[in-house]
Amino acid sequence: MYELLFVYGTLRSEFDNPFARRLRAEARLLGRATVVGSIYRVAEYPGFWPEPAGVVHGEVYELMSPGTLQALDEYEGQQYERVAATVSTGERVWIYRFERQPPLALRIASGDFCAP
After folding, report:
1. CB < 8 Å & 24+ apart, contacts of 22-28
2. How many CA atoms lie within 13 A of 108 on its CB side?
3. What is the pTM of this model?
4. How confident is the model at residue 66 (pLDDT cuts 50, 70, 90)?
5. Residues 27-64: pLDDT tens digits?
C-alpha cells in the first residue's frame, strides 16, 4: 500500500533542495491539489494550520519508498507534526501541520507559497 503526501512549501516541485530532490526521486507526483486551511510565512518557509478555513495550494505525491516519510519527518523537525487531511481530489493524505497556530498577520492570503 502506498501513502500519499500533500506538500505546500519547500518540498514542492518548484524547489531544488536535497529533500525536495529526494521526494521527487522516491515518489511519483500525482498533480496539484488544494486542502482546506491556511498557510503562514513562519520564516523562509511556510507553516500549515487548519484555521481559518481557506484554500492551500500544493501537490500530491505517491510515496514509493518506505523510508521517505521518516526522512521527511526529520527534515520538517519538531516544529511540524504529520497529520491526515483530505485534499480537493477526495484523497486522504499526510500533511505537515505547524506546531501551533501562527499569528494571523503572517497568513499568506493567496494560500500559495510560490505565488504569495
Report:
1. 22/68, 22/71, 23/61, 23/68, 23/72, 26/63, 26/64, 26/65, 26/67, 26/68, 27/61, 27/62, 27/63, 27/64, 27/65, 27/68, 28/61, 28/62, 28/64
2. 25
3. 0.94
4. confident
5. 999 999 999 999 999 988 999 999 999 999 999 999 99
Q: Where are the domains of the chain?
A: 3-106
Residues 31, 37, 43, 44, Cα dihedral to 10°: 20
Arithmetic mean of pLDDT over the chain? 94
Grid cell, residue 2, equals 502506498
Residue 108 near residue 52, CB atoms below 8 Å: no
CATH code of the domain occupying 3-106? 3.10.490.10
Q: Reply yes or no: is the peptide bond before residue 52 cis, omega within 30 of 0.
A: yes
